[in-house]
Specification:
By secondary structure, the chain is α/β, with parallel strands linked by helices. Helices cover about 30% and strands about 25% of the residues. It has ten helices and 14 strands. Bound molecules: acetyl coenzyme *A (ACO).
């Protein structure tokens, strides 16, 4: 059976480093609060780079790493597109010289990258497409309320991209399976209320244009949903929990990642933490964390890797793969 196989990974971060100390000078917060409550030590914010700019940079590196110059599909997961219309993916495809590849955005907030992987994998397995470029890219700094300490300290900007190619099911780099889910009853826990058809906001209108999050409730949902999804996925692909070498969860909070590991019965040592370096980069967090783990030699060919994400919607999703020999192009 044909399966999607991971053949290249690339990442991009904006140039501007924003430390906890810098935020403490204008918000009622401290480096100590941010580190102990979230694990975040710094993040990168755009100083003009758009989501499409970061997506194109990560995409270019992933293509170069995989040594390919043509793909048939570009799937871009983002909450912060360059424009409400059109989608950002076609322009990214065009800038990358990908001709008339099918290109579209996916909006599943912090679960977006796992959703995008699932769609591209299924399209490859079904023969709908050949090679695909899957990107998670965000510029949350553009939707954060600068006065809101509870969200400003958490989010960062960045992008990660992978190349998927048709290959053998079961081969290293092929996705063993996917679990995806949602619960729209929780939509108000994480949202940008304005700017859509329900609550219109003009370009200059501040009302409703900022990201809001009910942190405590989101914390509980994140642990429960990722643990449920990852357990279901492991059962469906027949992996024992103690066979997981590396757990790459959505990078929202170190306490969430540790609670997830505890719920799953996976040692905390197997958890990848990248939010100390980049904060919560939403749809970009999983590919950025994978690149970090590989750079630090924590990901070795043959390792069993479990990915699990949770985000606004509410949405969640998990997948698993045996890590391949993988070229990586980082920032
Ligand atoms: N600095 C100092 N104090 C702060 C800050 C800050 N930056 N932010 C909030 N506080 C205060 C609050 O005002 C509150 O004060 P009070 O007790 O006087 O009212 C106190 O700290 C505790 O606030 P909580 O919100 O209860 O803090 P908590 O320990 O829950 O941590 C946090 C907040 C970090 C947001 C946590 O709830 C969390 O990580 N939630 C999950 C976020 C998440 O998973 N997001 C993923 C999905 S996001 C997406 O999909 C886009």
């Amino acid at each position: 059976m044909t399966a999607a196989v991971l053949t290249g990974l690339g990442t991009a971060l904006p140039a501007r480093l924003v430390t906890n100390e810098e935020l403490s000078t204008r918000l009622d917060t401290t480096d100590e609060w941010i580190r102990t409550r979230t694990g975040i030590g710094q993040r990168f914010w755009s100083s003009g780079e758009s989501t499409g700019d970061l997506a194109a940079a990560a995409g270019e590196r992933a293509l170069a790493a995989a040594r390919v110059s043509e793909v048939d599909m570009v799937v871009l997961a983002t909450t912060t597109p360059d424009h409400p219309c059109p989608a950002t993916a076609p322009e990214v495809a065009s800038r990358l010289g990908l001709g008339h590849a099918a290109a579209f955005d996916i909006a599943a907030v912090c679960s977006g990258f796992v959703y995008a992987l699932a769609i591209a994998s299924a399209a490859i397995s079904a023969g709908l497409t050949g090679r695909a470029l899957v990107i998670g890219a965000e510029t949350y700094s553009t939707i954060l309320d600068p006065e809101d300490r509870s969200t400003s300290v958490i989010f960062g900007d960045g992008a990660g991209a992978v190349v998927l190619e048709p290959g053998e099911a079961g081969a290293p780099g092929s996705f063993a399976g996917f679990d995806l889910g949602s619960d729209g009853a929780g939509r108000e826990l994480i949202q940008v209320p304005g700017g859509g058809s329900r609550e219109r906001t003009g370009a200059d209108g501040a009302e409703g244009r900022y990201f809001t999050m009910r942190g405590k409730a989101v914390f509980k949902e994140a642990v429960t949903r990722m643990a449920g999804s990852a357990s279901k996925l492991l059962a469906s692909v027949g992996w024992a929990k103690d066979s997981v070498d590396l757990l790459v969860g959505h990078q929202a909070n170190t306490r969430i990642l540790h609670a997830l590991a505890d719920h799953l019965g996976v040692p905390r040592e197997s958890v990848v933490v990248d939010l100390d370096r980049v904060g919560n980069t939403s749809a970009a967090s999983i590919p950025l964390a994978l690149a970090r783990a590989a750079a630090e030699h924590r990901l070795r060919p043959g390792d069993r890797v479990l990915l699990s994400a949770f985000g606004g919607g509410l949405t969640w999703g998990s997948t698993a793969l045996v890590w391949p020999e993988l070229p990586i192009g980082t920032h």
